[in-house]
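Phosphoribosylformylglycinamidine cyclo-ligase: structure, please.
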Amino acid sequence: MDEHGHTYKDAGVDVRNAERTKARMGALTASEDNRILNRSGAFASLFLASFDGIANPVLVLKAEEPGSKQLLAFAHDRIQSVCQDLIHHLINDIVVMGAKPEAVLDTILCGRIESGTVVRIVDYLAQACRENGCSLVGGETSEQPGLLPAGRYMLNASVVGVVDRDSIVDGSRIRPGDRVLALPSNGLHTNGYSLVRKLMEERPEIMEEKVGELGFLDAILLPHACYYGPLRPVQGDSAVHGMAHITGGGIEGNLKRIMPAGTCARIDLSRIAIPPIFPLIRRYGRVPEADMLQTFNMGVGLAMVVDPEGAERLAARLAEAGCHAYEIGEIAEGSREVAFVNALNG
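Here you go.
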């Protein structure tokens, strides 16, 4: 220790730099939503609980992080992509309950606050929120040199949504005879990246592969698809009995979360349209089909359980919104399980 002693900055935390960076964030999170009653810099965010057209509002809350995909995204300067991943994943998780997203809070942890990078993160998060009808209302940016090395970032966020109590979609109305529709994914979304990174380490030649028209990195770093836009026209439709966002755990692990007692889902794997990234991963890693199904979405980003009489109409409305939904199974009597029939075509 020199004669002047230690400072907080010497320990790796630059308070002045953090203050300057946070000051730049205020303009980026500005919103036209007049329900936001205060702005950047307050101890907490104030949001007026006023929801037009909703008689009995129920708040829908969710926290999420983009997993180890963010390691690849930051390593290859795909910051906008991973910010979209985070917001889209959050929104999908509440949209399947019938909710509309309202407000998002973010957390940015880093080894050292690099002002340019942090400002880009906040800007991209705010953009993704605006594109989906909600606002980034605040959050936390924390410099943690003891936990993370300089240059390393960890993102997470929370969303608040709202749904009318009479319009909640929780799977309780699912019954035998219902149909299961698949809303397609564009690839990995935000799951399976620990396996993918292991393959990249052990078999780096996979990086040279083309996936359709895309290079390997472009294919695995495609932003998580957001289903809020396509689903808005069918929100509140009584023919929608349940929805499952297919993330970690795959089709089986997520679909059975919404199955009521006395039912099971029978999914025909041969009907699933599989994006080309999945057969490539399976081939390079010699991954068993069961493990692929448990780890990845395999092309089904969201599963919608619907009244059979409304299936065709709902699929048509989704198509009008730019989403090609198609039938992959049905609901039968059972004990809250998901049964697969036939094999994957890929």
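Notes: The chain has a mean pLDDT of 93.
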